[in-house]
Amino acid sequence: MNALNVAEYTQTLGLQAKTAAAQMARASAATKNKALRALARLLRDNVAALAVDNARDLERATAAGLSAPMVDRLKLSPQVLETCAQGCEQLASMPELIGELQGLKQQPSGIRVGQMRVPIGVFGMIFESRPNVTIEAASLSIKSGNACILRGGSEAIESNKALARLVQQALREAGLPEDAVQLVQTTDREAVGQLIAMPQYVDVIIPRGGKGLIERISREAKVPVIKHLDGNCHTYVDDPCDLDLAVRVTDNAKTQKYSPCNASESLLVARGVAADFLPRIGAVFAAKGVEMRCDPEALQLLGAVEGARLVPATEQDWFEEYLAPIISIKVVAGVDEAIAHINHYSSHHTEAILTRDHVHAQRFLREVDSSSVMVNTSTRFADGFEYGLGAEIGISTDKFHARGPVGLEGLTSLKWVVLGEGEVRS
Amino acid sequence: MNALNVAEYTQTLGLQAKTAAAQMARASAATKNKALRALARLLRDNVAALAVDNARDLERATAAGLSAPMVDRLKLSPQVLETCAQGCEQLASMPELIGELQGLKQQPSGIRVGQMRVPIGVFGMIFESRPNVTIEAASLSIKSGNACILRGGSEAIESNKALARLVQQALREAGLPEDAVQLVQTTDREAVGQLIAMPQYVDVIIPRGGKGLIERISREAKVPVIKHLDGNCHTYVDDPCDLDLAVRVTDNAKTQKYSPCNASESLLVARGVAADFLPRIGAVFAAKGVEMRCDPEALQLLGAVEGARLVPATEQDWFEEYLAPIISIKVVAGVDEAIAHINHYSSHHTEAILTRDHVHAQRFLREVDSSSVMVNTSTRFADGFEYGLGAEIGISTDKFHARGPVGLEGLTSLKWVVLGEGEVRS
User: Fold this and answer.
1) Rounded to whole angstroms, how far apart are CA atoms B374 and B66?
2) Mind telling me which CDD domains this protein's record contains (chains A, B) (predicted)?
3) N or C, fewer C-beta in 10 Å, chain B?
4) CB contacts, 8 Å: B341 with chain A
5) Distance from CA of A312 to the nearest CA of B (A)
6) CB-nearest partner of B420 from A120, A363, A376
């Protein structure tokens, strides 16, 4: 396709999505859940056929010299497909959110005013490599009564096409429009530029991928973006606190997994407990090979820990999201300095205070300007499933519309409903 | 100022606002309400002094040949100032919204998860002519615990400066940072371009003014915009309906005031009641000099109405926001055609169905994709005060974040709060 054709093609997808969105908005809960269960069945029935399409992507990826972990992420194994099928069934079992009428109250004029939850309309999702995101996005879109346009990575194009065909078959079986879930069939990069610049058709864009992709999309989009940038999360060990709890939780926050965005990248310790606490957590980190980038005070207190990999921290370290066995460590005077440090250096994702002091806990919760604020627990809990949202569309690092882990509600909007009996305005 | 100086100046305002926002976020309800009551007092105490500054704007406007209504909008009369003072006092009496913790529930891991309402941070407001918007924006900002940067029209610069001085005095009296409300002191247009492109300092932009201003800002902003474009509102008279109610409500929706965005610009009538209803509403419109732009069927049914100003409607008429004594009129087969017509031609602001049919009412509420949907009442009710919001920041024609009339909540955000007792993720 040349650029003109890509533009025309993307516009067609947009128009078709908008038409389908109107039908999805009035679909009954039973119909949407029927489509989700049909999709689960089709995924299980087509494990072998999907393996054939998937193999073409895997061969191409191997031939192109992609790394083994990258190739692994492309794989549609029976296990991956079963997880997708179960996800669809779980969504089908969740309560319906569309049409809920809330807060209906009579006003002095006599009219009754409330708000109704409705689908947002059309969302575009742009994602890299993992083809199972096609099913995740499609199923969230169906449950929430939206239409979506999906643009996956070129490495997974054959797998994505095969999955999208199953989604459209499931929609047809339930009597829903197949344009409710459309996959961009071209790998032309121009299609992304078009997709994010059609406010007449697309209501919101959700990118999933590397920071470079998300920054580019945020910069160029002409529609709202639910975006997730970095997670420079902090754990602050307050004075007074339960040091056993602090060692256990800080360890978990840093080392349970190094790659997630909700892992703690920076440890702040109140001066009053630093001499007791730092050697203990330092020994844990030393045993796990976690490099500690320390301010001078922490460096001194950790000096005697056997096998500790200690490095003096630079100013840049306080901003860093390592996603690796590295943590920055700073001794602070107390809760005031901790809050000020976090609000300055954090990426406003997730921060935790470990404390016995009620006033400090309340101040931390109120004053730390991050999408998740926690007391006496691990930052690793910042997650849609752990928060009970049932499904997670993404994690937003913005304050507008949705903040932090975003569930199905993030794909909906509230419109005003006014019920009258002939009232007029005077 | 040259462009470089304007950029530097605007950045300084941004940094100062961000610093003040952190202090405002932790201010107590009592402190914020004290500032609002101080502002009300200062406005009343300075009626004479404000008249002097205001006179300079009025003279300049008259000399520049501005129309009498435009000059009138600039005027800070004692009545206008008293209304502003009462607005501040009303806000001071409203319940506090910041810090509310909602939905705290225990999850299977043991953590308790809820959401806390917090200020959004810094908002920028860009507005034209009326200087009283300075007080409205400042008081909403104080109540909601935000900081704001205000950019008024150049015609009102002296009045705005004088009002901003009083706002800062009120903030100081209450012990709050005066940078919590800053007025852009230069009338250089470049400052607007800067203000809407500082995502590091400004969280949301709220423009108030003509469609041209709002379109420009939406196009160029690098931060979210709560914007209000046009209001092409519809009233649909269904079959069956109470014709007396329909005449009264349709009359109110169109003629109670012609200029507001929530006035009905288009009338749809079900074929089954058209022959009875149209001559009656036609006579009302004829008596008030309202021009009727009709489809062929309506034209015929209205032909016998004495003094009616009838014009055949063009395709463009169905899209039009007249803000004038003009209405477009179309006969439709029934509720299906009415919903389809509205979803195609409407600006998605406010639409009403007048009906006795419960199923039609429910379908209209659910399927019409507008920010306000109404049954048996006048579209003129689409308003923050009529909806019981206490104060209105603006009306949003978007679906993202806030939709329709936006109250103080539109200037807030929900962050996640997690309370634990040492839980770790496994």
Assistant:
1) 39
2) ALDH_F18-19_ProA-GPR
3) C
4) none
5) 29
6) A376
CA-wise closest residue to A330 among A414, A381, A265: A265
What is the C-alpha separation between A341 and B166, in angstroms, rounded?
34
Of B256, B377, B422, the CB nearest to A377: B422
Question: Do residue A188 and residue A73 come from a single domain?
Answer: yes
CB neighbourhood size of A326 (10 A)? 18
A chain contacts of residue B422, beta-carbon cutoff 8 Å: 242, 245, 248-249, 376-377
CB contact under 8 Å between A373 and B415, yes or no, is: yes
CA-based nearest residue to B224, from A407, A125, A401: A401
Residues A376 and A275 placed together within one structural domain of the fold:
yes
Cα angle: B316, vertex B320, B321; to 5 degrees? 170
Do B215 and B258 lie in one domain? The reply is no
Distance from CA of B265 to the nearest CA of A (A): 16
Q: If you count residue pairs, one on A and one on B, with CB atoms under 8 Å apart, how many are there?
A: 221
Number of independent structural domains in chain B: 2
Q: Which of B107, B121, B381 sits opposite A386 (nearest CB)?
A: B107
Q: What CATH number does residue B337 fall under?
A: 3.40.309.10
Mutant choice from B381, B395, B426 vs A, greatest count of A C-beta within 10 A: B381
B19 and B131 assigned to the same domain: yes
CA distance, residue B162 to nearest chain A CA (Å): 32
CB B195 within 8 A of CB B184: yes
Q: How far is B156 from chain A (nearest CA, A)?
A: 31
| A158/A44 same-domain check | yes
> What's the number of CA atoms in the CB half-sphere (13 Å) around residue A252?
20
Tell me, what CATH number does B34's domain have?
Answer: 3.40.605.10
Show the tokens assigned to A265.
């990248």
Average pLDDT, chain B: 95
- CB of B376 closer than 8 Å to CB of A422: yes
Q: What ipTM was predicted for this assembly?
A: 0.91
Measured CA to CA in angstroms, residue A133 lies from A48, A87, B147, B273 at distances of 19, 11, 39, 51
DSSP string, B36-63: HHHHHHHHHHTHHHHHHHHHHHHHHHHH
In a domain, B391, yes or no: no
Return the amino acid letter for B79. Answer: Q
Reported as a single tens digit per residue, the pLDDT across B258-314 is: 999 999 999 999 999 999 999 999 999 999 999 999 999 999 999 999 999 999 999
For residue A16, give its domain range: 3-226+406-418
Asked if A293 and A364 sit in the same domain, the reply is: yes
Q: Do A375 and B420 touch (CB under 8 A)?
A: yes
Q: Tell me which residue in A398, A414, A420 faces B403 most closely, judged by beta carbons.
A: A414
Please tell me the distance from the alpha carbon of residue A74 to that of residue A85, in angstroms, as a whole number: 17
Query: What is the C-alpha to C-alpha distance for residues A63 and B339, in angstroms, rounded to an integer?
Result: 54
How many other C-beta atoms can be found within 10 angstroms of the C-beta atom of residue A339?
A: 24
Check residue B308 and give its pLDDT.
97
Q: What is the pLDDT of residues A82-132, one digit of tens each?
A: 999 999 999 999 999 999 999 999 999 999 999 999 999 999 999 987 899
Same domain (yes/no): B280, B209 = no
Judge if B36 and B181 occupy the same domain: yes
Q: DSSP labels for B264-289? A: EEEEEEEHHHHHHHHHHHHHHHHHTT
Confirm if B393 and B408 have CB atoms less than 8 A apart.
yes
Establish how many alpha carbons lie within 13 A of residue B58's alpha carbon, considering only the half-sphere containing its beta carbon. Answer: 14
Task: Give buried/exposed letters for A304-320 (b at 16+ CB in 10 A, else e).
Answer: ebeebebeebeeebbbb
Which chain B residues have a beta carbon less than 8 Å from that of A382? 416, 418
| Longest alpha-carbon distance in chain A | 81
